[in-house]
Amino acid sequence: MRPNYSWPALLAGALALSAGAAGAETLTVRMNADIRGTDGINRDANTDTVLHHIFETLVAFRDDLSIGPLLAESWTVSDDGRVYTFTLREGATFHNGEPVTSADVKWNWDRRMMADSGWFCIPFFDGAQGLKVEAVETPDPRTVIFRINEPNALFLRQLANIQCNGWIASPANANPDGTWNAEAAIGSGPFTLEAWEKGQAVRLARFEGYRALSEPASGYAGDRTAKVDGVTFLIVPDSATAEAALEAGQIDILPGIAPDRIEEFRGKGLTVTSVPGLSFTPLLIQTLDPLLSDPRMRRAIAHAIDFSEIADVRSAGQAQFNPSAVAQASAYFDEDFLAWPEYDPAKARALAAEAGYAGQPIKLQTNTRYQGMYENSVLAQAMLAAAGFNVELEVLDWAAQLDNYLAGTFQMQSFGYSARLDPAQMYGVLIGDKTKTPTRQWQNDAAYQLYIESTKETDFAKRQALFKEIHKLMAEDVPILGVYYEPVVDAVRPGIEGYAVWPADKTRAWGVSRN
């Protein structure tokens, strides 16, 4: 039986704030942690979710992972594949009443591409990974032209990349000295930033001046009309408290419930919606670590872990083991991407001995903010211990673990990547020079060249073949231990209409209403 909860004062205060003005129709969505900022540079998955309600990219992914219109209502591509001409949505307006113009697009682009901007997506556009934007031109207020160095299969997909936050913000967000005003978030999206009660809630209000596209909403593309007066993203770190709040009617939408709880939630009269996901759940290995730099040690660790068992236990059978950067939900996936060192503890012991392993401690960093990461680390530790590895769990708060990931300061980590909607986008964040970009997990020149080819190739079968070559190299090198792709499972209160999940695993509050 679930215990009775006495709501913490902070939660009670945040719930009071979420009630809004008398008669206002609002949605309350649970977040497990606060956002990191409003500039799109200092980001994580929660930050991305909130900011994409306020700001809009030129183009966006649809539910089927194709590219559709958003701030740009249409675009053309030159015959040589090097010139993209976008027409901005008629009537698009920033929250301060100023029209969105091509000059604003260029201002945002130039700002992000500055060497000291901190934008982690610069290598996707500066030629470092093949694609280079050579010029951005503004022939008239509603037309913006991007000129790229050569045809590229990923250009539109990188403009739509959710984690890049390449949306168009009003220049009014900048201070007089050019720095970003940390309290500002003036975009063109269907919601405005009403209040950021740090540590408690982020409250959004419907933008009455929003002029939507005629194309139906799909994914992040199309008609984003808000059908409620406001949305409160309520910060509730503890999962049990969040579940109790959902049952009590204090929360309307609870993203990311455990798959093994689906029937339990449905039995309580809640709606549960699910879909196969694209969020990658791996164990990271620091290949620059003196002990783990030996591929034999990494293969030994791979042989010691029953990944299929972890995937089955953690997802209640809704997800299968997948060590690759190509999810089962991707059109590019087939069984070839499941090739991996098989579960064999005896082989693990033999390989570790061959590599000279003598029981040195291996620290596996994890956190309890994301229960899946913690449980994956516990299961992996037990399996590794059974095969003779001395693995110590290092339980950190999520912010500290994320900082360690960004700096590359770990031996192993239980981690999760938010959804990348094209396999090349996932490979793009995994492969690279670790000494220059510590978040890269795999430094392999041959794999990198194959990745670059995959960004240029437009033929489906040829791209798939390139991804398979990359995976074959990964299975030999074992730079990362992919486990599974997290299914998207959300619970919703009765009376909420129009809410749906999608493979990108991003909450969407536009188009949602109460009956």
The protein's oligomeric status is single chain
Model regions low in confidence, pLDDT < 50 over at least 5 residues: 1-7
Please give the radius of gyration in angstroms: 23 Å
Shape: globular
Biggest beta sheet summary: 6 strands, mixed
Give the % helix: 25-40%
Distance linking N and C termini: 31 Å
Side by side, the strands of the main sheet go 11-16-12-15-13-14
Q: Which structural class is indicated by helix and strand composition?
A: alpha+beta
What fraction of the residues are assigned to beta strands by DSSP? 15-25%
Strand tally: 18
Q: Number of helical runs?
A: 14
Mean pLDDT: 94
Give a description of the structure.
By secondary structure, the protein is α+β, with helices and mostly antiparallel strands. It contains 14 helices and 18 strands. It has a six-stranded mixed β-sheet with strand order 11-16-12-15-13-14, with helices on both faces. It has a four-stranded mixed β-sheet with strand order 1-10-9-8, sandwiched between helices. α7 runs antiparallel to α9. The N terminus is likely disordered.
How are the SSEs placed, and which strands pair?
Layout (H helix, E strand, L loop, with lengths): L8 H11 L6 E6 L13 H10 L4 E3 L5 E3 L2 E6 L5 E6 L13 H11 L20 E8 L2 E6 L6 H5 L31 E7 L3 E6 L23 E6 L3 H9 L5 E2 L7 H6 L3 E15 L9 H10 L2 H9 L29 H10 L7 E5 L4 H16 L4 E5 L2 H10 L4 E3 L8 H8 L14 H12 L3 H18 L2 E13 L3 E2 L15 E2 L1
Parallel strand pairs: 1-10, 13-14, 13-15
Antiparallel strand pairs: 2-3, 4-5, 5-7, 6-7, 8-9, 9-10, 11-16, 12-15, 12-16, 17-18
